[in-house]
Every structure is written in structure tokens, then in C-alpha cells.
Amino acid sequence: MKAVRFHAPGDVRIEDVPEPTPGPGDVKIRVRNCSTCGTDVKISKFGHHHIHPPRVMGHEIAGEVVETGAEVTGWTPGDRVQVIAAIPCGKCAECRRGRMTVCPNQESMGYHYEGGFAQYLVVPAKVLAVDGLNRIPEGVGFAEASVAEPLACVLNGQELARVGPGDDVVVVGSGPIGCLHVRLARARGAARVFLVELNRARLDLAAGLVNPDAAICGAEVDPVDEILKLTDGRGADVIITAAASGAAQEQALQMAARQGRISFFGGLPKDNPIISVDSNLVHYRELTIVGANGSSPAHNAEALRLIATGSVPVSDLITHRLPLDQAIDAFGVVARGEAIKVTIEP
Ligand SMILES: [Zn+2]
Ligand SMILES: [Zn+2]
Question: Residue 264 C-alpha to ligand 2 middle, in angstroms?
Fold first, then answer.
């Protein structure tokens, strides 16, 4: 079969590899869609400490069951499925407390296990053990289902930041994740959602799709001033930084209303993770700063439900559908910010 394999930083190849065989507790699927994200670009350029090459990349996976191991029950060939990306152990102190997104033993599809940029994929027994294989609801296509994984991460972020009815929400960064944040905030009852982005072309592309209450180009105006103006000086209830930018995180604190919540949704580069925080701003304004680390299996199931019910539409965010042999070009499209969501159809 054809697969996209990481060999070394800057060395990703589309090649013929043997079709995988499921073990007794595994399920083999025919991959129909595996969507790309910024992480794939990062891996292709810099590698990742959990990836021992060669490794099939891809973690936003949807497909259909073609074969089940002898010990597997409940799944049959032809079942349409979505696969979680982050696999919690289900047994440690955090997992037992229901905090599966911060499981210290977490493993991932496309990192510890072969990923979805391939014609076939083995879903490991560990995924089944934590309810990480989801049936795709009727009416939801494979491409949309593949977006359940990033939407699940966005859902985790907004739960932690307690986005709710009546909130004014700022989303910084207008990539696919930023667009999903805008849509989910609306589904959760936000009063107004403002979108901030440095790149004018990217902002216009995203704003045309998700219609924020204001689209603010950070290269043309001061986003802090703009948000204060739009909120009569009060600031926003929630600010979500969906960009790998320390400056954006520092600005987020300046935009926050009293008792505001700030989500550092996007991580910072490993070699530059320090920002400065006015501690008194946090103290007197009673601010909450939260992080976000992937999603739990339950978040994935809920994300599929949000897509199926139309609460969070995603099909129009999929701007590019490419065959597997164009996967390397797809990473380029993602890296240059020319697309919202690029999905691969192996
Ligand atoms: Zn991703
Ligand atoms: Zn665990």
C-alpha cells in the first residue's frame, strides 16, 4: 500500500509499504480521510522526540473497518469509524480522576503508532480499551469526521476556559483551529466572537467562512485597543490564543475583562516558552489562565455529535481535498497558510 512516512527532519517520503496486519485485539481500517494540521508541518521539518523513524504520519483519521482481530467484539467490516489521536492509558492517577488529556503515559497515533496517511491503518487495542474508536453518525462524511479530532481539542480548550452564554470571546489566530474556536464559541452561546490575525489574507479567508463579529488584523491596528474599544473598555470574557506566539499571550492578558479567562491554547516553541505576566492584573482582576493539551476520547465522541447535529459545521472549512501522492504538497499549502483545512484521501 501507499503511505507517507517520516524518515528524518526534511525527509518525508511517499512510498510503498506492506499492508499492516491486526493483532488479536486490533481493528484494521481502510483510511478514507486523514486531515493535515500545523503539527504535521512541524513534524516534517523538525521531527518529534516520540517518533522513531520510519513512521507513517497523520492523526486526524476516519475510515471504514475491513478486518477485526480474533478477540475484538462490537465491530464488523463496513463500520464507518473515527479514531482518537491521543491515547490515554486509562489506569494512572490522572486517568482514574477523569483527567485523560493530561495522562503522563499518553501515546499518539502517527507518533508511537503508525498514522493515517496510508491506505490502511491498524487501530491498536489500546485505542479500543479507552473507547477511542467512534462510530461516524449517519449523514456525516469521512472528511467531516476526520475534523472531529481537532474539534475535540478545541472543545477541551473551551471547557477549561468555561466559554458560555453571554460571553464576549476573542480568538487569536485564524487557522483551522481558530475557525473551529469561533464556531464552537457561538454554539456554546457566546454573545460576540472577535477574530484576531496578523496575516490580512488569512484573516479575510477565515472571516469569510466563520463571520466573526469583528475581524481584526493585528498588523494594521493594535488588537488590545480594538478589543477594548469594541467592549466599551471592559475587555473580553474569554481570550483564546490559537497561535504559537508569546506576544499574543501577553496581549491576551491585556484584553481580559474582570474575572476573564485566558486560554493558552497554542503552545510556544520549545526554545522560547517564557512570557511576562503582570501578576497584579491576574490578582486584582481575578483572571484565570488555562492551558489545553489535546483531547480525551469523550471529547472526540462529543465533537462528532456537534458535527452531526449541525451545531458546529465543518464541511465548508475543508478547503482542499488531495490524494495521498500529493501529501507533501499539502504540507506546503498548510505551511503557507493558503488553506483552512486540507484533507488527504488515500
Ligand atoms: Zn493535529
Ligand atoms: Zn493515564
Answer: 23
Which ligand has an atom closest to residue 175 CA? 1
Residue pair 329/312 in contact by the 8 Å Cβ criterion: no
* CA of 98, nearest ligand number: 2
CA 229 – ligand 1 centroid, Å: 34
Question: What is the rounded distance in angstroms from the CA atom of residue 231 to the CA atom of residue 46?
Answer: 41
Distance from Cα 153 to the centre of ligand 1, integer Å: 9
Rounded Cα gap, residues 182 and 210, in angstroms: 7
pLDDT per position as a tens digit, 139-170: 999 999 999 999 999 999 999 999 999 999 99
Distances (CA, A) of 294 to 59, 149, 156, 232: 12, 9, 7, 34
Q: Which helix (H) or strand (E) holds 252?
A: helix 246-255
Ligand closest to 177 (CA) is 1
* Average pLDDT over every residue of 262-276: 95
Backbone angles phi and psi of 299, in degrees to 5: -60, -40
> 100: CA distance to ligand 2 center in Å?
6
DSSP secondary structure string, 271-287? T-------HHHHHHHT-
Report, as an integer, the average pLDDT of 306-330: 97
Q: How far is the CA of 37 from the centre of ligand 1 (A)?
A: 5
- The 3-state secondary structure of 19-55, one letter per residue: CCCCCCCCEEEEEEEEECCHHHHHHHHHCCCCCCCCE
Judge contact between 228 and 257, C-beta under 8 A: no
Handedness of CA 151, 154, 159, 162 (dihedral sign): negative
What is the CA(49)–ligand 2 centre distance, in A? 19
Cell of 89: 492509558
Query: How much distance in Å is there from the Cα of 193 to the middle of ligand 1?
Result: 23
**DSSP designation for 190:** -
